[in-house]
Design a protein that fits this description.
With 164 residues, the chain is mostly helical. It has one domain (2-162). 79% of the residues lie in helices and 2% in strands. The protein has helices spanning 2-21, 23-47, 59-93, 95-100, 106-112, 119-136, 145-162, and strands at residues 53-54, 57-58. A two-stranded antiparallel sheet has the order 1-2. β1 and β2 (57-58) form a beta hairpin. The chain starts with a helix and ends with a helix.
Length: 164
């Protein structure tokens, strides 16, 4: 387990260096990521401008839902999308053969090779919007602590079992 944490930390360092090599690409990617998050929330605001509710969802509920989506999509794109997209290229170019002979779990290596840190800004923007909007609009979001802790415990158990 310690070995995989060290390897993952090295992968994070490599991806951070790759991110800052081309500054113009960093800033345009940042602008694009934040822009898509804002567009999604603003679109839902415009769609619900003249109605009070849609199919039992209030306007505030729909705006919060539209703000939650960029957070989850940002996490997905940050951790998984590039790696899933690169898998056919790794297979086609023959790099998978060199991955299979490395003394590390092949699925772990292929799944964590690339991290898109730009997407973290989309997650931060979405989370801050939810917090600020929730402060001004009376919405009660409840997550049962027992369910949340059970999900986290099961995820941690599965991760430890996989990379023991």
């Amino acid at each position: 387990m310690k070995r995989y944490i060290k390897i993952y930390l090295q992968i994070i360092k490599i991806n951070i260096v790759k991110l800052f090599i081309y500054r113009a690409n960093f800033f345009t990617s940042l602008l694009s990521s934040v822009g898509w998050g804002v567009v999604g929330i603003f679109t839902m605001y415009l769609l619900t401008l003249r109605i009070g509710s849609a199919y039992g969802w209030s306007r505030e509920d729909l705006i919060i839902l539209a703000a939650i989506y960029p957070a989850f999509s940002g996490i997905f794109y940050m951790l998984f999308a590039r790696n899933i997209g690169n898998l056919p290229e790794i297979i086609h170019s023959g790099e998978l053969d060199s991955v299979l002979v490395k003394p590390i779990d092949s699925q772990f290596f292929v799944s964590t090779l690339s991290i898109d840190f730009i997407q973290i800004f989309r997650v931060i923007l979405s989370a801050s919007f939810i917090i600020i909007y929730g402060h001004f609009v009376p919405i009660h979001i409840t997550i049962s602590r027992s369910n949340l802790s059970r999900i986290f415990r099961d995820f941690l158990y599965a991760f430890c079992q996989k990379y023991r």
